[in-house]
Design brief:
heterodimer; A: alpha/beta; Hypothetical Protein Ychn, Chain: A; 38% helix; 16% strand; globular; B: alpha+beta; Translation Initiation Factor IF3; four-stranded mixed β-sheet; 34% strand
Amino acid sequence: MSDEKKLAIIATKGTLDWAYPPFILASTAAALGYQVQIFFTFYGLQLVKKDLDVKLSSLGNPGMPMPMPMPVILQAMPGMQAMMTSMMKQKMKKKGVADLEELRELCIEAEVKMIACQMTVDLFEFSHSDLIDDVEYGGAATFFEFAGESDISLFM
Amino acid sequence: MADFDQELDASGLNCPLPILRAKKALAGLSSGQVLHVIATDPGSVKDFEAFAKQTGNELMEAREDGGKFYFLIKKA
């Protein structure tokens, strides 16, 4: 299948908003016939945890549309992150945006290959049993083996 | 409207779900069979065109009626 197009993604973020781009692009590319690999490193490892529980924060993100104007100091109050996460999840559900877990499942079904960075797994003291079974482990050289012959490489 | 072999109602679903569901439905059809997709996501109009172009499946018809979008896709 050498004529198959290839997409390589590096996923480095572990928040709810940044969890979507890698899974949306990977699942769609797979549906279009691409062979896809995602390399999860640093906070991106949160996206391959068995317990997929990512949160949203408005802190350090002045671009986030707020239901009402709110001073930054209030956004840092206890409970605000949980509240924003739940509001965003409700909104996504209402708008028919895919559930994150469903999207990840669709990627796995479509044979998107997922690689977890062993170095950051060690750094964060995660164990392989914290991550989904579909994940493989490797390092930068593993990524380049695939990325080197990819048509598209994206860093997220 | 032309005949179809299977119908997929993707109403209320947003990008990329209509495409992913359509891909799954097409996998169950044989070559030459036609899938009818109903969607409400306005982005799906361009997306189904792009999907057909890249996968070789033929987009036989795309139309809008009362805020809904209807697509006929023939499996390659």
